[in-house]
Amino acid sequence: MIEADMAPVATGDGRGGAWHLVDRLRRGDSAAAHELVERYSVRAYRIALGVTRNAAHAEAIVRDALSSVLEHIDMFRDDAALAAWFCRNVTSAACETARRTDPPRGDIAVESLRPCFHDDGHHTSTVDDWSERLHESAFRQRVGVVLSAAIGELAPEYRAIVTLRDVEGLTIAEAATSIGISVANAKARLHRARLFLRTRLDAVMTAAA
Description:
Arc Repressor Mutant, subunit A
């Protein structure tokens, strides 16, 4: 959920927590600015870093988003609107930065990643099940390294959907909104990205088994 780590706090004035931070920022509460950073910057940085793969770029994106909130605080209806905008703004900026700085990458050809089967339903190639080794710490570490490298091979729009849905745990609808695409397109992108990552992981892990 977009606001999973952003629980509202009651203001005590009868309006409830939904207005808490936005209302205080409008009134120029200096402590509210600090709370804004505490509440939003950590997750935003993870998202920006996941998409750009560059710490300096991620820091700049989050810093710009925080500045925009303070400069345009009147455009937010409540804390929920602020949270949704913040995630959307950071994701968009991260994708734009990655497109500008990444080497060119083509789209993911789904057909080349799908497993092939014989007419009897069996795989045309041997499928090794290495999942039972995930209890081994060294093997889990290896999986993490391979996955990180594979995610880095994805185009920014695929990195974004994987980061939002599989890393940050947003719903597919929330991820789609944050990226600015339809739910159907978000599902298609996520499916392609997962196929690519699974293929990369299978190739490396099977070779290492």
